[in-house]
Amino acid sequence: MRKIAIDISGEQSQRGLSGDSVDLVRQRLGLLSGKDKILMSMYYVDGCSIRRIAGLLEMNECSLSRRIRKISGRLLSDRYMKCLRNRRFFANSELRTAQDYYVNGQTIGQIAAKMGGSYYEVRRVIERIEAILELVEKTGGKSEARNPKFETISNNKNSNEQDISDF
Question: How far is CA 130 from CA 26, 31, 65, 102, 105, in A?
Answer without folding.
Answer: 26, 20, 30, 11, 16
